[in-house]
Amino acid sequence: MSKEHSTTPEEAVVPLRLELRDLLRAKIVKTVEEILDEELSVALSCDRHERTDERCGYRNGKQVRRITTEMGPVTLSVPRGRVQQDGGVTTEFESRVLPRYARRTRRVDEAILGIYLAGANTRRIRKALQPLLGEEHLSKSAVSRVVNRLKGYFLQWQQRDLSQECYPILYLDGLNLKVRLARRVISVPVLAALGVAPDGQKQLVALRLAVSESSACWGRLIDSLQKRGLPDPLLLVTDGHAGLGKARRSWPSPKVQRCTVHKLQNLLDHCPVHARGEMKRDYAKIVTARDGIAAREAYDSFLAKWRTLCPSVAESLEEAGTELLTFYEFPKKMWKSLRSTNALENLNREFRRRTKTQGSFSTETAALILLYGLVAFGQINLRKIDGYKAMKELPDQGWTVAA
Question: Which residues of the chain have pLDDT under 70?
Fold first, then answer.
């Protein structure tokens, strides 16, 4: 005699979930249809069956449309109408809520882009979303069209007017990506500019693929920022790359802060292994001093001592000069954020982590589009810099500083 199968709590929940989902989907359909009907009533200046002097057109039946939403595919009954224009000519009503040829909601397109930017290809995107959205309107070509929109977004961003964007602080640095150029995969630098807005929020300002980090390549990036109207920042935070050092001379207005972390690495490269601990302690007295005066005293003491112990270490420090100490001229709460390019290094680290599965990019544009998309669509979140509340203490040069 067989035992009767008893329903487990988990099995009982499944039909309930499906029923709730269907009810919610039906509610969404009804709400959208009501919104579309109201939109048409506003365009015609009258409700259904209403006769008024203000009436400017007429209804023309309904059209059945199937739309893919975040709740899955739904069928809508979309009202049609003819709207009278100036001169007595009537035109077909076009909904702003549901554009004529739209097959997916904006949130579905954003989900597709999000999965793509997370590292999935077209096949994986379709497989991931198929249980929710079904196969309809989610073909390979449909996914590709959504992904290709990134190129348009990127080109607009890359050519935008910068005259209304103000960044008191600008970080400049580069990262390397593998790109196929002239039928060969090579590692090429991507030059990046990261700005800090008056409220302390970091913003990606520019990306440019270059053949090298030469002064000519950095010069073209800086020239592009200036030509598009970017107001001069108060401070440029850079590493010690020679090409960038020469290029920024064409931008004489901003003060310059050399990255203290990069400089420490340079000093270690010139220092004997047995003396590195002592050298690091002496260097720390420079970059963690109580104020600029104490920092300058520590700087002079470092040079006097290490000219005797290891001249190459002293020469490396002198190469950066007092640009290592510029951050002391700013509010103390911001020192940690300003004495290194870590803000941009963290972004570069995220770029590398998200792109390491790509192997190499087929084109230069593909690499830049992906990097831009990771930030633009929230896959990489940029937070405010440490000490952002002290931004209001910076000299006023025409930008609005948040309280």
Answer: 1-25, 27-29, 32, 67-74, 97-147, 355-363, 396-403
Q: Are 25 and 71 within 8 A, CB to CB?
A: yes
Of 55, 48, 50, 146, which Cα lies nearest the Cα of 106?
146
- Res 200: pLDDT: 93
Planar angle of CA 107, 111, 114, nearest 5 degrees: 135
String of b and e for 150-185 (b: at least 16 CB within 10 Å)? beeebeeebeeebeebbbbbbbbbbbebbbbeeeee
Give the span between the Cα atoms of 349 and 54, in whole angstroms.
61
CA 388: distance to chain centroid? 19
- Spatial distance between the Cα atoms of 10 and 327, rounded to a whole number of angstroms: 60
What is the tens place of the pLDDT at every residue in 168-216? 999 998 888 777 777 777 788 889 999 999 999 999 999 998 878 888 8
Q: Which residues contact 22 (CB under 8 A, 6 or more apart)?
A: none
| Residue where the block lists tokens 């249980």 | 131
Which two three-digit tokens encode residue 111?
């989900």
CA 198/CA 201 separation, integer angstroms: 7
Q: What integer pLDDT is reported at residue 148 of this predicted model?
A: 75
Sign of CA dihedral 170, 175, 180, 183: positive
pLDDT at 313: 95
If you count DSSP H runs as helices and E runs as strands, how many of each does the chain have, helices first? 13, 8
Q: Which pair of tokens denotes residue 83?
A: 């709207």
197 contacts 190 by C-beta, under 8 angstroms: no
User: Closest by alpha carbon to 327, among 231, 235, 202?
Assistant: 235
Residue 202 structure tokens: 């970091």
Query: 356-387 pLDDT, tens per residue?
Result: 666 666 667 777 888 888 888 777 888 899 99
Distance from C-alpha of 116 to C-alpha of 112, rounded to nearest angstrom: 6
Determine the residue type at 295. A
Residue with tokens 């309809």: 136
Distance CA 11, CA 189 (A): 55
SS3 167: coil
Give the pairing type, strands 202-209 and 72-84.
unpaired
Read off the amino acid at residue 302: F
